Amino acid sequence: MHLSNVCLLGGTGFVGSRLTGALHDAGKRVRVLTRRRERHRALLVLPRAEVVECDIHNAEALAAQFQGMDAVVNLVGILNESGPRGTGFRHVHVELTSKVVQASLDCGVRRLLHMSALHADAASGRSLYLRTKGEAENLAHTFAGERLAVTSFRPSVIFGPGDGLFNRFAALLKLAPIMPLACPDARFAPVYVGDVVAVMRDALENEATVGRHLDLCGPDVFTLREIVEYTARTLGKRRLIVGLPDWLGRLQAAVLEHVPGKPFTRDNYDSLQTDSVCGDTPPQPTRVASIVPGYLTQRSRDALYQSWRRAANR
Ligand SMILES: NC(=O)c1ccc[n+]([C@@H]2O[C@H](COP(=O)([O-])OP(=O)(O)OC[C@H]3O[C@@H](n4cnc5c(N)ncnc54)[C@H](OP(=O)(O)O)[C@@H]3O)[C@@H](O)[C@H]2O)c1
C-alpha cells in the first residue's frame, strides 16, 4: 500500500502535531484541518504541509477537503463535553466519526487511522467518554466495509513535552503544599507520545495492521498517587498528597466540573474507575524516567531564570 496524500483531523493537537511532522518527514503531503489556522502557523514551516481552516462537523466541507486524499487520520477527541450530558461526547466522537467514514468512502480515500482510547467500550465503558469512544471505534470499523482499510489505536494516558498529565500535576503542585487526590489507586501505563506516533506512522502503509485495534501502553505502571509523588520528587517539592475516599472524590468532581476549564468532572471520575493498563500486549519501549525529568525540570529552570530576572529588575 503506497499512500502519498494524508489528511489529518486533530493534527494540531498534542499527538497530532507530532504525527503531522512524522508523516511529513516520511515524505507524505499532509493536509491538517483546524478550527483556527492562525493558532497553528508553526506547522506551516513544513514545506509539504498545508493547514486549512474547516468546519469538520459539516459533511460537505469535510468531503471537499478529502478530495484527492489517499488516507485520513482522525485524532479528534475531547475529555470534557459542553452541552447537555452526553451530547457533546456523541457529537465529537460518534457523529464526527460517522461523517469522516462517509466522506472517506464518497471521496475514494483508501485508508483510515482512527484514534480511540484504552478500554473504550460502547457497552461496558464506565464513563460517557469511554462509551462514546468505543461506539466511534466500532462504527469506524463496521461502517468502512471493504473499500476503506481501518486501524484504530487505543492508548493509555500519553506523556511527553506539553502533555496534560505530568505538566498538569506539576502546575497544581506548585500552587499549594497539600494536594487532595481523587482515585489515588487508579492505575496507568503512561505511553510516550513519540512511541504512539511511531506506531501510527508505521501502521499507515502496513497491510498487517488493517482491521486491528491496537492497545498502546508504556513499560511502567503507576497509580495516580505514584504519578503525583513522582512529579513532586522530580520538581524537588515536598508535598502532602491526601487520597480522597470515593464519596469525597466524587464530590470534588461534582464541584470542579463547574469551575471554568472543568479541571475534573464526574465523567473523568467515572473513567478512573477502570485501570488504564494493558493486558498481555507488549509495552512500547520508552520509560517515564528517561523523558519526563527533561521537560518538568526545564520548566522549573525557566521559572528560576524568570525569578532571577525579576530580582535583577531585567
Ligand atoms: N493525550 C492522552 O493522554 C490521550 C490518551 C488516550 C487517548 N487520547 C486520544 O488521542 C487523541 C488526541 O489526543 P491529544 O491529547 O493530542 O488531544 P488534543 O491535544 O486536545 O488535540 C485534539 C485536537 O482535536 C481538535 N478538536 C478538539 N475538539 C474539537 C471539536 N469540538 N471539534 C473539532 N475539532 C476539535 C483540535 O483541533 P483544532 O483546535 O486545531 O481545531 C485539537 O488539535 C484524542 O482523540 C484523545 O481522545 C489521548
Report on the architecture of this protein:
The chain has 314 residues and is of the alpha/beta class. The chain has two domains: 5-159 and 190-216, Rossmann fold, CATH 3.40.50; 222-309, no CATH class. Helices cover 41% and strands 17% of the residues. The chain has helices at 14-25, 59-66, 87-107, 128-144, 166-175, 193-204, 224-235, 246-256, 266-271, 292-311, and strands at residues 5-9, 29-34, 49-53, 71-74, 111-115, 149-155, 158-159, 178-181, 187-188, 191-192, 213-216, 222-223, 240-243. The strands form four sheets. It has a seven-stranded parallel beta sheet with strand order 3-2-1-4-5-6-11, with helices on both faces. Strands 7-10 form a two-stranded parallel sheet. The longest helix is centred in the first third of the chain and has 21 residues, at 87-107. The radius of gyration is 20 Å and the shape is globular. The mean pLDDT is 94. Bound molecules: NADP nicotinamide-adenine-dinucleotide phosphate. NADP nicotinamide-adenine-dinucleotide phosphate is lined by residues 10, 12-16, 34-35, 40, 56, 75-78, 92, 115, 117, 155, 157-158.
